[in-house]
Amino acid sequence: MTAAKPRVQNVIQRHGRRGPQYDARETPETRPHDGACTLVPGRARIRNVDLTSAQAQFEPEPGWLNTASYGLPPTSAWTELQTALGTWRRGVLPWEMTGDSTARARSAFARIVGVPEHDVTIGAQVSQLLGPMAAALPEGSTVLVPQEEFTSMLFPWLAQSMRQVDVRTVPAAELAKHITDDVDMVAFSLVQSASGEVADADAIVAAAAETGAMTVVDLTQAAGWLPLDASRFDATVTGAYKWLLSPRGSAFMTTTPGLRDRLTPNQAGWFAGEDVHSSYYGPPLRLARDARRLDISPAWFSWVGTAPALELIEQVGVETIYQHDLALANRFCAALGHETGDSAIVSIDVAPDAAERLDTAGVRTAVRDGRVRASFHLYTTDDDVDLALEVLTR
Ligand SMILES: Cc1ncc(COP(=O)(O)O)c(C=O)c1O
Predict the structure, then answer these.
(1) Is 211:191 a contact under the CB 8 Å cutoff?
(2) Is residue 97 pLDDT above 80, yes or no?
(3) How many angstroms is it from 84 CA to the middle of ligand 1?
(4) For 281-312, what is each residue's pLDDT tens digit?
(5) Atom nearest to 124 CA in ligand 1
(6) Ligand 1 pocket, 125 CB below 6 A?
(7) Is the CB of 152 under 6 A from ligand 1?
(8) Atom 16, ligand 1: residue with shortest CA distance
(9) pLDDT tier, 147 (very low <50, low <70, confident <90, very high otherwise)
(10) Is 21 in a helix, a strand, or coil?
(11) Is 127 in the pocket of ligand 1 (CB under 6 A)?
(12) Where are the alpha helices (DSSP H) in the chain?
């Protein structure tokens, strides 16, 4: 694949909301495509919600500092999911309504990351969405990846080794300076899963634009707390079950039309059809013209929970969430004598018995190799932070 030159602009950018009152389901592109029908009317109405009201929608037990592993659902998502599960149990689930949830989710995601809706593909996992892109790499391509990268963003490229695809790994912090003329693709997480390190996207995008390398970016640990603009990258992939507060099983990919044209929709089924509900049987191949042609059919209940979760994030605003998450992360760091930073995920050295003590106190973090990874999101409170600090400073 030859790269489409990405535009250089600030990654941390406030992108405008579309105004306080409109109905996402009235978006003309979504309704006919996804065969929407209404289970819970009026849920997609966009309005401003302050952080305190949003926090009242969550019910975590004290000490949840592990959104980097999975996010918690707001009441709106939980309730819609229970309603749908109830109808399934009684055999009255209008399954087509999951097309409505999927359309709402696609639409909200597009607005959150700043791309047109027709550039958004839906899937189940990051690695699954990357499959067609990895398969489209010409033999002999070179892919540059951070050496500490999460494997769902690394294995798809490594799995192409029998086609002589060369995967070069370098420290995440040095990615930009390793983008040489022979690099065809740079694949990296905007926020690293283990360390919380935020990539220098400006430098990486600028270096890639200079050499013509393509940029493929994993937003799983970024979208939902870090204000960002996905349109500056050739492609992005995002698992929604962490910072986007969704059930496991929903994920998104964004692609530029130029890149998309070079991908074979290997996983195409009825849901990738131009008109979904007349694509159930028989030839000819009649795929959607936009990014939906790379869709897989939705795992119903995952998407029922995803739509309201994304709508809440949009209603609160990523900028507000960013300020909240960062303030807590930095208070945590400062109290432990650790340098403050720019990430909602922090990873710090701890005493050998810290994991056990945190566990006993009911504080849920991820502790690996003598480091505690704590992550802070919109439902995290000062009390959660204090609980962890009490254990770690004892
Ligand atoms: C950066 C990143 N990407 C992707 C994933 C999940 O990948 P998949 O959706 O393939 O399970 C994780 C999970 O921790 C992650 O941290």
Answers:
(1) no
(2) no
(3) 27
(4) 999 999 999 999 999 999 999 999 999 999 99
(5) 9
(6) yes
(7) yes
(8) 193
(9) very high
(10) coil
(11) yes
(12) 30-33, 51-55, 75-89, 97-113, 126-135, 155-158, 201-211, 257-260, 300-316, 318-335, 354-360, 382-392
The alpha carbon dihedral of 187, 215, 252, 191 has a sign of positive
**DSSP per-residue codes, 288-350:** -SSGGGG-----HHHHHHHHHHHHHHHHH-HHHHHHHHHHHHHHHHHHTTPPP-S-SEEEEE-
203-229: pLDDT as tens digits: 999 999 999 999 999 999 999 999 999
What is the pTM (predicted TM-score) of this model? 0.89
Task: Kindly give the distance from the C-alpha atom of residue 130 to the centroid of ligand 1, in angstroms, as a whole number.
Answer: 11
252 Cα: distance to centroid of ligand 1 (angstroms): 12
Domains of the chain listed by start with CATH number: 100-313 (3.40.640.10), 319-392 (3.90.1150.10)
Q: Give, in order, the Cα–Cα distances in Å from 226 to each of 37, 90, 239, 317, 364.
A: 32, 41, 15, 10, 22
Q: Is 230 in the pocket of ligand 1 (CB under 6 A)?
A: no
* SS3 assignment, position 254: strand
Q: Is 239 helix (H, G, I), strand (E, B) or coil?
A: strand
Expressed in angstroms and rounded, the spacing between residue 126 Cα and the centre of ligand 1 is 6
238 within ligand 1 shell (Cβ under 6 A): no
Nearest-CA residue for atom 3 of ligand 1: 220
Is the CB–ligand 1 distance for residue 102 below 6 Å?
A: no
Distance between CA atoms of 346 and 174, rounded to whole angstroms? 20
